[in-house]
């Protein structure tokens, strides 16, 4: 499997970032909603600490993924109408903004509530704002609504990938699957270097 992306497929590194982050984001969201119904206990506090650490991991992985994306080539896109290419770019842009906004909003809520923020009990992170009980409920709502909005954008993202795979029968989804490979040999774009 290639370390760098090729004209016909994403690199192993890009695929790993994509799927690990997807699993962490969706799993952490489900985990948070499940935990919120639990009775107050030390176990619940520890679970929320784990939720926060996973969110911080997603934030760190996002920046590592962005650095990798800047250094890596991008596979050639399958031909598509202009509106579909624009829609795909809008959805990807929204995903990137939400992937950053969601953990940051949790960090800001945590700061306003006055909770300590530890990363897997290894070290503390600073508060992003001063303790402010007047806005912590609002910030929690913002955090939750961002997650719901992220899920809606993910539905559009997955729906687009399935449309490409099932209706257009192109290689868009196949190239991002963990062991996927394009069926067709896509020539490199002008300016791509091996």
Structure description:
The chain is mostly helical and 194 residues long. 62% of the residues lie in helices and 3% in strands. It has 4 helices and 2 strands, in the order H-H-H-E-E-H. It has helices at 12-36, 42-71, 82-113, 136-168, and strands at 117-119, 123-125. A two-stranded antiparallel sheet has the order 1-2. Helix 1 packs antiparallel against helix 2, helix 2 (42-71) runs antiparallel to helix 3 (82-113) and helix 3 runs antiparallel to helix 4 (136-168). Mean pLDDT is 88; it is low at 185-194.
Offer a quick outline of the entry:
The chain has helices at 12-36, 42-71, 82-113, 136-168, and strands spanning 117-119, 123-125.
Beta percentage is under 5%
Unreliable residue stretches: 185-194
Helix content: 55-70%
What is the succession of H and E elements? HHHEEH
Given helix and strand content, the structural type is mainly alpha
Q: How far is it from the N-terminal to the C-terminal residue, by CA?
A: 15 Å
Total beta strand runs? 2
If you compute it from the alpha carbons, what radius of gyration comes out, rounded to the nearest whole angstrom?
Answer: 19 Å
| Average pLDDT reading | 88
Can you summarize the main beta sheet? 2 strands, antiparallel
Strand order of the largest sheet: 1-2
- What is the 3D shape? elongated
Total of helices: 4
Primary descriptors:
194 residues; 62% helix; disordered C terminus
Topology summary:
Blueprint: H1 12-36, H2 42-71, H3 82-113, E1 117-119, E2 123-125, H4 136-168
Helix pairs in contact: 1-2, 2-3, 3-4
């Amino acid at each position: 499997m290639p370390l760098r992306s090729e004209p016909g497929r994403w690199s192993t590194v890009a695929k790993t970032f994509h799927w690990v982050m997807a699993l962490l984001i969706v799993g952490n969201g489900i985990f948070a909603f499940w935990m919120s119904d639990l009775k107050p206990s030390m176990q619940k506090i520890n679970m929320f600490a784990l939720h926060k650490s996973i969110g911080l991991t997603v934030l760190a992985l996002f920046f590592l993924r962005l650095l990798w994306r800047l250094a890596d080539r991008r596979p050639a896109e399958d031909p598509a109408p202009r509106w579909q290419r624009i829609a795909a770019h809008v959805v990807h842009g929204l995903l990137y903004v939400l992937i950053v906004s969601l953990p940051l909003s949790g960090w800001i809520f945590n700061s306003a509530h006055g909770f300590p923020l530890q990363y897997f009990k290894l070290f503390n992170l600073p508060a992003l704002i001063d303790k402010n009980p007047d806005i912590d409920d609002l910030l929690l709502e913002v955090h939750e609504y961002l997650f719901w909005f992220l899920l809606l954008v993910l539905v559009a993202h997955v729906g687009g990938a399935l449309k490409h795979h099932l209706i257009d029968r192109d290689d868009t989804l196949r190239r991002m699957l963990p062991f996927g490979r394009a069926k067709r040999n896509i020539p490199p774009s002008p300016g791509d270097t091996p």
